[in-house]
Amino acid sequence: LASVLLSFELIAQNYDESKVPSYILPDVLESQNKMKIANVKDWESIRRPEILALFEENVYGIMPKKFDNSNFKIKNENKLSMNGKAHLKELEISVSNNNQTVIINLVLFVPTRAKKPAATFLLINNRGKNNTSPTRDTISGFWPAEQVIDAGYAVAAFHVNDAAPDDKNNYRNGVLRLYPEQLKADNGMKAIGAWAWAASRIMDYFEKDKDVDASKVILTGHSRGGKASLWAAAQDTRFAMCVTNCSGNTGAALSRRRFGETVKVINTTFPHWFADNYKKFNDNESALPLDQHMLVSLIAPRPVYVTNASEDLWADPVGTFKSVKEAEKVYELYNVKSGLPQSIPAINMPFVKPPLAYHIREGKHDMTFYDWAQFIKTADLYFNRQ
Ligand code: GCU
Start and end of every 4-O-methyl-glucuronoyl methylesterase-like domain (predicted)? Predict the structure, then answer.
């Protein structure tokens, strides 16, 4: 019966622009006590921390900052992988707290010919581990390591299941063993919070690896992984740039539009992703003290690359673009001009200029060689590598 009800609800989702309810977005530049935020100082000291706390409390849950210790171990290394083009390192990043240890496996390729330390793309892999094969027996557009290496970047990935299995019955068996108090709290983090936390632990490692330029790490995620890449980059300002590919509901798309996936649907289908408090907003988006444009804004003035796919209405392309446009206000505070067009660009017409880059690719919900080629262009522009 539950699955019948659920599929009924999924069918009932709105894909008709004329049925989008009218809504008022919370003003990213007005604090909760109605103060207008007009400069970087007030943004960074008042409004930014306030918004971070709102997302922690109401959506993604608390992000624990402390742990007892961490260790990095090289499991395997090949200085001549990819026909000598890359130096492969396979690492175990183990983090302990509360007498528990979690191990996050990292695959890292560093370009042999490019200048070191290298700017690095880090993927939060939410799909099959074969996509990030260290032996390169599978080559896929989801993590096109050769393409990234050829562009002169290092490329790394970890799998979400190492941090929190993506399953409502097993998500506790990972990072959450280190923070059992989170499981009891209504604002405790769950799987997506744990994935974001793991990305920061990898950043801790990058800061120690002389081949990686930790000041030039581009955190990348697709869909549920793109929700996590935004949340991680919002929290952890060490990430220089964020890519959020087809991240949709509770990623880059505006929740209040209720177009495609809604808060109720996501909380019902994936009860293990967000804090329990988020369920209060099921069919009640207008009560949220935030919307997803504010998550993008938290990354300012660092660049964010946002994408959609033409056949992926579930992720609400129009609502995603509107959200990115709203975030421009915060970049303006920093005097970083966004050149985004007024309305959503045509299909396959990428707008790659930082700080806010966007494209809608023809085709399905996926991350492809084409998408990565655009991310690389934005990173090249931002890091002056073109
Ligand atoms: C489902 C889910 C989305 C998610 C997507 C994915 O479609 O409803 O919110 O983004 O899976 O991760 O591919």
Answer: 145-333
This complex has an ipTM of: 0.99
pLDDT in tens, 296-316: 999 999 999 999 999 999 999
Smallest CA-to-CA distance from 362 within 349, 373, 352 is with 349
Query: Residue 67: pLDDT above 70?
Result: yes
> Which atom of ligand 1 lies at the shortest distance from residue 314's CA?
7
Spatial CA neighbour of 323 closest among 249, 381, 273, 378: 249
Ligand 1 neighbour 166 (Cβ under 6 A): no
Question: Shortest CA distance to 205 belongs to which of 110, 104, 102, 350?
Answer: 104
Is residue 249 within 6 Å of ligand 1 at its C-beta?
yes
The band of 385, judged by pLDDT with boundaries at 50, 70 and 90, is confident
Query: Beta 241-245 vs 212-222: how paired, if at all?
Result: parallel
- The answer to whether residues 381 and 355 touch, using CB atoms and an 8 Å cutoff, is no
Could you tell me the two tokens for 301? 């003035």
Q: Best of 222, 223, 262, 308 to mutate for ligand 1, by most ligand atoms within 8 A of CB?
A: 223
Q: How far is the CA of 223 from the centre of ligand 1 (A)?
A: 6
**274 alpha carbon – ligand 1 mean position (Å):** 13
DSSP letter for each residue of 294-363: HHHHTTTTS-EEEEEETT-GGG-HHHHHHHHHHHHHHHHHTT------SSPPPTT--B--SSEEEEEESS
127 in contact with ligand 1, CB cutoff 6 A: no
Q: What is the pLDDT of residue 360?
A: 98
